[in-house]
Input
Amino acid sequence: MARGVSRARTARRIAAGAAYGGGGLGLVGAAAVGLVLAEVQFAKRTVGTGLGDPPRADGLYGSEFAALAAAGPQPGQAPLRLGMMGDSTAAGLGVRRARQTPAALLASGLAAVAERPVELRNVAVSGAMSDDLDRQAGLLLDGESPPPDVCVIMIGANDVTRRMPPTQSVRHLTSAVRRLRLAGTEVVVGTCPDLGTIEPVYQPLRWLARRVSRQLAAAQTIGVVALGARTVSMGDLLGPEFAANPREMFGPDSYHPSAEGYATAAMAVLPTLCAALSLWPESDRLEVARNEDMLPVAKAASAAAGQAGTEVTPARGPWALLKHRRRRRVPAEDLTAPASRAAGPALPPRADTPSPS
Output
């Protein structure tokens, strides 16, 4: 209990620093953090990347629903607009086919649940840190097209490995979320993943990397829930599946997820994505049997950071709901549909992609 209270206080302090312009690490000692980050960077060099650019997945998903509606007595609804922002995890670095990226999986899943076409636009780039989110939000909001109905953001790992102060990291994230919310967009944030899962990082540095990552994840949650957004804890890249099957769940660089790993992550985010649009059959009513609860935001954020796949959604005042939504895979044909049916025409590689994260 005392440990949970300490984590909540630390996350609250980071989030408050982001809101009021504070600085400093606010985590573990600077020397220890420097050692962790050096080890993580060494791990990344050890596993290597060489993965090239992630495939582009922008386009229309669930087009068969538009065709069915057009053939029926009632005109079809306009496509839902889904935006994707963040770093290499959001971009889908490490897979070869567009339909294997998390954005494509989420678009396919959302279309299947809504029984409605989904128009996807993914502006995430490999290597991005939270200070790139304002630019990415501008790409989604500043054009002639209407803003997204919902946007998923996955960010944080590069902020940790490149030593961005956590208060600054949270400040950039909340600024982007605020822009999206003011535009009428629902927002779901996949919080900072657990860097203690990187295999070449050994104890005790693995424990320190986990602590730094979870503290940032909790602070991200506190910041964005206050703006009416929802979060899903990415944790150790979504838990026991990755721990039990690292060779299957991680890609060839042992750092980014494989196609199966991305599918596992996407299916954990999908229920929250659908709930944000009031499409999920489960309401926001708490299920005590699933250890769901209403907690002060800081305590909910701390608890979620330690349990991958956990949702935190705003309630009233300084309270939030801690949810463990049931994962429900959409039909296999919707997740593995050929790109020619699921998405629009292929797009050229991004020209603004920095070095892989």
About this structure: Residues 22-28, 330-357 have pLDDT under 50 and may be disordered. The chain is about 45% helix and 10% strand. Residues 5 and 87 are 30 Å apart (CA to CA). The two ends are 35 Å apart (CA to CA).
